[in-house]
Design brief:
Distance between the termini: 39 Å
Shape: globular
CATH architecture of the largest domain: 3-Layer(aba) Sandwich
Number of domains: 2
Strand order of the largest sheet: 3-9-8-7-6-4-5
CATH class of the largest domain: Alpha Beta
Radius of gyration: 22 Å
Largest sheet: 7 strands, mixed
Helix content: 40-55%
Strand content: 15-25%
């Protein structure tokens, strides 16, 4: 509430003056100025525009078919006939909603099937699914930690990690992206100042496509007696020989990581999140984590879709490797055209940092005119000078689509104002 009050301008009477009170918020006025500013430059705001059909390597948008790089249907399992059929069958059996929190009457058998499948797939003792990936991080981090503790995360951490840490009341320690040497030095001087420390990393960082150095993270965990939580939103199904994520990719047993987190909305073709780990952790969260306990159970179609997606992935374990080959090809072709694409070679997330937000919006708009859909990522999702185009590479992207796209990006990149490119 204090934060809202701070952002509210004007008198208390104005704050209570009806349904237009948000117009007095400084943040809202800043948003309106931002929209007006880009409009004066002839740049359209590209967000919240509806599309038709499944999000694949192409989408239909305002009657046009576009090459699509803004959806994270990494293994092309959303829209897969088997996955869609499972979701439809779950609706026929259970309806469209669990209709209650799981602790009362919202538990259905497919919830347990999915959780058992996740645990088996990852090699953990148990798992728990939540209705939102964002909520998973927020509620679990804020519930595991409290004021005597510390949450430790990379400067490139997702907002859900940052928010969970702030809500916990714990001390926050942020370190430069990938700088484990710097973190080690900080902890040498401060570890005795907090009780429990939770180091949170991401298997694949969502803004740059960089891959966590799990070996260094485990070294820091063990040296400074920390818990380690890995957010695998973008690495489950994409990293590791059979898509089991960062532990498989690093050749590390799942037990080395204390808390495995992931989403169901990317590789797994549904919506929601999960936590996997030892039985005590899952029992603790199942009975006591507010974001799980007081939320409705995961919807039947989303649960069934994720379960079916796992089954396809286990039956066709070559899918992750084929995706990584696509990601390498995209980067190879981008380098040939001089594009400074960020991210690891096999990462399905590839960023082109533009810098200036308005220039980034302009580049996205110009690509759209060529039939290429890639959304601009601007402040506050990234730093003021860190605006970028973020390309999600999926299994059904083709070499022909890359050949049609990358020369156009390079041409429009060269046309950008030199001071802001």
């Amino acid at each position: 509430m204090d934060d809202i009050t701070d952002r509210l301008q004007g008198s208390p009477e104005q704050a209570r003056s009806g349904d237009r009170f948000v117009e007095g918020f400084a943040g809202y006025r800043k948003l309106q100025r931002r929209i007006a500013s880009v409009a004066r430059r002839g740049i359209a705001v590209p967000y919240f525009e509806p599309r038709d059909g499944v999000s694949g390597s192409t989408i239909h948008w305002h009657g046009r078919e576009l090459i699509n790089f803004s959806g994270y249907n990494y293994l092309s399992l959303s829209g897969h006939p088997e996955v869609s059929a499972a979701a439809k069958a779950a609706i026929d059996q259970y309806g469209t909603s669990a209709s209650a929190s799981r602790i009362v009457s919202g538990q259905i058998s497919v919830h347990t099937e999915l959780e058992e499948c996740i645990a088996s797939f990852l090699g953990t003792e148990d798992a728990l699914v939540f209705v939102s990936g964002y909520l998973t991080n927020v509620t679990v981090i804020s519930h595991l930690l409290s004021r005597p503790d510390a949450v430790i995360y990379d400067s490139a951490a997702h907002n859900s990690i940052i928010t969970g840490g702030r809500l916990s009341g714990a001390r926050v320690i942020e370190f430069e992206h990938g700088d484990f040497d710097g973190l080690d030095e900080v902890l040498r001087g401060s570890r005795n100042e907090f009780r429990r420390g939770l180091l949170v990393g991401e298997g694949v960082y969502s803004m740059d496509g960089t891959v966590l150095d799990l070996e260094r993270a485990l070294e820091i965990k063990n040296r400074h007696d920390l818990l380690l939580m890995i957010d695998e939103a973008h690495s489950i199904g994409t990293m590791g020989a059979t898509g089991r994520g960062i532990c498989e990719a690093a050749g590390v047993p799942a037990s080395a990581v204390d808390v495995h987190m992931g989403t169901l909305s990317k590789t797994l073709a549904g919506c929601g999140g999960y936590i996997a780990g030892d039985r005590a952790l899952i029992e603790y969260l199942r009975f006591l984590a507010p974001g799980f306990l007081f939320s409705v159970g995961l919807s039947p179609p989303d649960t069934a879709a994720a379960l079916a997606a796992f089954k396809v992935l286990e039956r066709e374990p070559e899918r992750p490797q084929r995706l990584r080959e696509k990601a390498k090809l995209f980067r190879k072709m981008a380098r040939e055209y001089g594009l400074p694409i960020r991210g690891e070679e096999e990462s399905p997330v590839a960023s082109l940092v533009v810098g200036n937000g308005d220039t980034c919006l302009l580049l996205s708009q110009r690509l759209l005119e060529h039939g290429i859909h890639v959304q601009p990522i601007v402040y506050p999702a990234v730093a003021q000078d860190g605006a970028r185009l973020r390309f999600f590479i999926t299994l059904n992207h083709t070499e022909a689509q890359f050949k049609a796209t990358i020369p156009v990006i390079a041409k429009e990149w060269e046309r950008l104002p030199a001071a802001t490119a």
